[in-house]
Design brief:
The structure holds three protein chains of three kinds. Chain B is α/β, with parallel strands linked by helices. Chain B has 14 helices and twelve strands. Helix content of chain C is 40%, strand content 24%. Classes of the chains: A mainly alpha, B alpha/beta, C alpha/beta.
């Protein structure tokens, strides 16, 4: 009994120590977010300012990170690109969270045929490669950032639904839920006001971990030409545009956005896994 | 004040051990104080306790009283980051100084602990028989042990895995495992608390027989004062990391001395008695509560003003028993000759507020 | 005294077993409870006492049987319509064994009570009265369950049940997880509440001594069936069933010998 009482003290101490990697990752993320927010102030040029005379210029005082084949300043494009590249995955995850949490909780709460139906549905969606599924939707509804966000949001839904269902299944069995039932509270109200908020932390932690994957998937779509369309400064699109420059010997147009993607994905994963552990284990 | 207390206590300890010298002491904790960083008070505060060979000693207290910490100390197991004063001796060996192989041998052969949750002890993928063999029994003896703790069809049980047995059966297996190494000292930490009363009675009967055969000492930890008093030879009552009373089991029922012990008895519902319960006010102290004086004073109905500032000293009672209470100590000193203060320091205290 | 508050008739529940067949969790359970009375349901694990408690509050749907409160039969399933649900909730409330997991971890004591009061259309200002009634102060009112002690949590759980103003309170091992000194406080609190509000208690427990203290009538269950029932005093002093005798012989006390219980067990299996 005494040891039980001691445990929080011990973990409380451990929580405060952040590994160096996490610190670096957090710093990188803060910088990227600042860059995105302050892009109009920081960027030396407009992201879509074409200067064909400066096509494929290397690093110089005028263009710190060089230019692409249209002579657009890469630094300015990458700064502005940070905006779509960060916001789009957030929107995507919001869609996936809304649908996934609803389905997961519904499935766990109702059980029976509802649970079977939702589970089989997610199984079917799992059987499809996510990208194929997304491309299918885009083929029907047309290319563009909005469609790809919605399509990928749908593609991410089964993952979130499955995770939420597993959490909700054990949460539903907790006596506090029984206590609300005995009080005469309706199922919808228990789920919305009490069950979901109690799952919130854990689900949020999981979404943080999914962020990197969401960003990569969106970049992939843009790279394939299904996502953001020119003249957008989306990083995935920039990599695709920079690809032809590589053949001409200029690495920067592909390298700069590529590095930006890698930096954010790695940082989010390092800091996110750490944060998700803390979020999930706070009970 | 503190110095005086220490001298008094050590003198008394020597006396009481001498008195109980008929059978040699197996486990002896002397003035054990255990502190961990981040808590306001020590987990254990000057705990002095003995278990003689073949003796059954009860350790009673509510949550946070330090009973489990005391038992673990006998295994040489202290919480991480703990600092301690005093000594823990098992069979003359200072357990807290043991390291490496010697400590392993101590934990494997000399002492065995039985926890409340048998599933925490048993490896779910290993067979019951293997569990006993791991602890030094031969195949044949494993079956004998299983029969001795009251499991039917022991040959079959030895081939089963933990998930195939009920909680009560598993606890029997754990007890068989504890007996397998023929330990000198058994530590039972709420070993039967999670079980049904009828199962508890059966297991305790078997534990008693098996233990008597091996002549092992038993430190029996429980929150149930009635159980401890009925099952043990002697009982220690703990509160907030301190031993507040040490009595023979019989005396605990008939003449409880410490206000806390009396409080526990009068707030536990008793079969066949229809008296009204008298709850003890307040709650058991947590590790963040500190006390300048007697830790029980805030909940005690008999506390006087001084109790809140004076640390109670252990006052000897009959038959090597003792109680740590200012008020009771003074009363019995006034009534009887045998509890006269033994040191100058104590005399001075008595005079100063007597 | 002729008015019966709660009447339970031939209540039964079985569960399918994985290998086919059915496990009888409760069978042919009958009892009545007067207004303001206290009935104990005693048994060991697997006796079906918790199943009976859950059927009473509607968390488990009985296979057969009838539960009547004030002469009105309770629907076996939770009604879909809100007014019916709330009326039903005001008949019977429940206090669970582990107060830590039976309280919403996110809500403070005050919020917890307010949410129950609001649901039943009662004045939210009653929260303070309820907290006072169960002996919780202002500091506890603003605390989440994590920052309350075991006893305080159970007091809050009792207050939450009372917030609905029920006729009957079902307590399922409600003091089992508490320290002895706290257990006595809660038992005293239940005495007071019963006297002050006239709420009737169904007290489910494995602890005979506690049941003796709280209840007037008792029902002893074993393997889903009632083995003995009657006035608590009579059943616990002159038990007629060998199983009740075994239970009594197993309770430690002054002069107790566990071997007596083993002898009683032997008498039972013969």
């Amino acid at each position: 009994m005494t040891t039980l009482a001691l445990r929080p003290v011990a973990t409380g101490r451990r929580t405060r120590r952040r590994p160096v990697g996490v610190l670096l990752a957090t710093a990188a993320l803060v910088l990227v977010v600042l860059a995105a927010a302050l892009a109009p102030l920081l960027a030396p040029y407009a992201p879509d300012a074409i200067d064909l005379s400066a096509s494929l210029a290397g690093t110089s005082g005028d263009h710190l990170l060089g230019t692409d084949s249209s002579g657009q300043d890469l630094l300015s494009r990458v700064l502005f690109g940070a905006r779509t590249s960060l916001i789009a995955p957030l929107l995507l995850l919001t869609v996936a969270a809304l649908l996934g949490v609803t389905l997961g909780v519904l499935s766990a709460w109702r059980g029976g045929w509802v649970d079977t139906l939702v589970s089989r549905l997610t199984d079917v969606m799992y059987a499809f490669p996510g990208l194929l599924f997304t491309v299918l939707i885009i083929a029907v509804f047309g290319t563009g950032t909005t469609t790809s966000v919605l399509a990928l949001g749908l593609a991410f839904t089964p993952t979130v639904a499955r995770y939420t269902r597993s959490l909700a299944l054990s949460e539903v069995r907790k006596p506090y839920v029984d206590a609300y039932r005995v009080q005469g509270m309706g199922g919808t109200r228990i789920c919305a006001l009490h069950l979901v908020p109690n799952l919130g932390r854990a689900v949020l932690g999981y979404l943080v971990v999914l962020f990197g994957e969401a960003l990569m998937s969106l970049a992939t779509l843009s790279y394939l030409g299904f996502g953001a369309q020119p003249p957008s400064s989306d990083w995935g699109l920039m990599v695709q545009e920079g690809q032809s420059a590589v053949v001409q010997g200029a690495l920067l147009p592909a390298l700069v956005p590529g590095t930006a993607i890698a930096l954010v994905v790695v940082s989010v994963n390092v800091a996110g896994v750490w944060a998700a552990d803390r979020l999930g284990s706070q009970d | 004040m503190t110095e005086a207390t220490e001298t008094t206590e050590s003198t008394e300890t020597t006396e009481s051990t001498e008195r109980a010298e008929a059978t040699p002491t197996l486990l002896s904790l002397e003035d054990l104080t255990v502190r961990v960083p981040g808590t306001a008070r020590p987990l254990l505060d000057s705990v002095t306790l003995t278990v003689a060979e073949g003796e059954v000693v009860g350790l009673v207290g509510e949550s946070g009283s330090g009973k489990s910490t005391t038992a673990k100390a006998a295994l040489g197991l202290l919480p991480t980051g703990a600092s301690c004063e005093g000594s823990v001796r098992v069979d003359g060996t200072d357990v807290l100084r043991l390291r490496g192989e010697a400590l392993r041998t101590h934990r494997a052969d000399t002492v065995a602990m039985i926890h409340q949750d048998p599933r925490a002890t048993l490896n779910p993928v290993r067979r019951i028989g293997d569990f006993l063999v791991e602890r030094g029994a031969t195949r044949e003896r494993a079956v004998e042990l299983l029969a001795a703790v009251g499991l039917s069809d022991p040959e079959h049980r030895a081939r089963q895995r933990p998930h195939e047995l009920s909680g009560g059966m598993l606890q029997r297996v754990v007890i068989a495992g504890a007996l397998a190494a023929r330990p000198r000292l058994l530590l039972a930490d709420e070993a039967t608390s999670a079980l049904d009363v009828t199962t508890q009675a059966e297991i305790l009967t078997q534990l008693r027989t098996a233990r008597e055969e091996q002549g092992a000492g038993l430190l029996f930890i429980t929150h149930d004062l009635h159980l401890a008093a009925a099952y043990c030879d002697r009982v220690y009552v703990m509160y907030a990391g301190r031993v507040v009373e040490e009595r023979t089991a019989r005396a605990l029922f008939t003449a409880p001395a410490h206000p806390y012990t009396r409080g526990l008895l009068s707030c536990s519902p008793t079969l066949g008695e229809s008296r009204a319960l008298v709850p003890i006010q307040g709650r058991p102290p947590s590790l963040s509560d500190t006390f300048p004086g007697c830790p029980f004073a805030p909940r005690c109905g008999e506390a006087e003003e001084e109790c809140e500032t004076w640390l109670p000293e252990r006052v000897p009672l009959e038959e090597g028993a003792s109680v740590a209470c200012r008020v009771v100590g003074r009363r019995s000193a006034g009534r009887n000759g045998w509890a006269q203060p033994t040191t100058a320091g104590q005399t001075k205290n008595k005079v100063s507020h007597g | 005294m002729t008015s019966t508050l709660l009447q339970v008739e031939s209540l039964a529940k079985t569960y399918p077993l994985p290998g086919g067949g059915r496990h009888t969790a409760a069978e042919d359970i009958n009892f009545t409870l007067q207004p303001g009375g206290a009935l104990g349901i005693v048994g060991e694990s697997g006796s079906g006492k918790t199943t009976v408690a859950r059927m009473l509050v509607g968390l488990t749907t009985p296979d057969t049987g009838l539960i009547t409160v004030d002469g009105r039969a309770r629907e076996p399933r939770t009604p879909r319509r809100r007014p019916a649900r709330l009326t039903r909730a005001r008949e019977i409330q429940m206090v669970f064994q582990d107060p830590y997991v039976s309280l919403d971890p996110r809500l403070t004591a005050d919020q917890c009570l307010r949410s129950a009061l609001r649901l039943h259309g009662r004045a939210e200002s009653l929260a303070a009265t309820l907290l006072d009634q169960v002996g919780l102060g202002e500091r506890e009112a603003g605390a989440r369950p994590r920052h309350l002690s075991g006893g305080q949590r159970q007091r809050l759980a009792i207050a939450r049940a009372l917030a609905v103003d029920p006729r009957i309170l079902v307590l399922d091992e409600a003091v089992a997880a508490l320290d002895v000194s706290i257990q006595a406080q809660i038992l005293r609190l239940l005495d007071d509440i019963r006297r002050d509000t006239g709420v009737a208690l169904v007290f489910v427990s494995h602890d005979l001594a506690v049941v003796q203290h709280v209840t007037d009538e008792v029902l002893v269950m074993r393997r889903g069936r009632t083995v003995e029932q009657g006035p608590t005093r009579r059943v616990l002093t002159e038990p007629s069933d060998p199983y009740t005798r075994l239970l009594l012989a197993s309770v430690p006390g002054e002069g107790w010998d566990p071997a007596d219980a083993v002898a009683a067990r032997a008498a039972l299996s013969v």
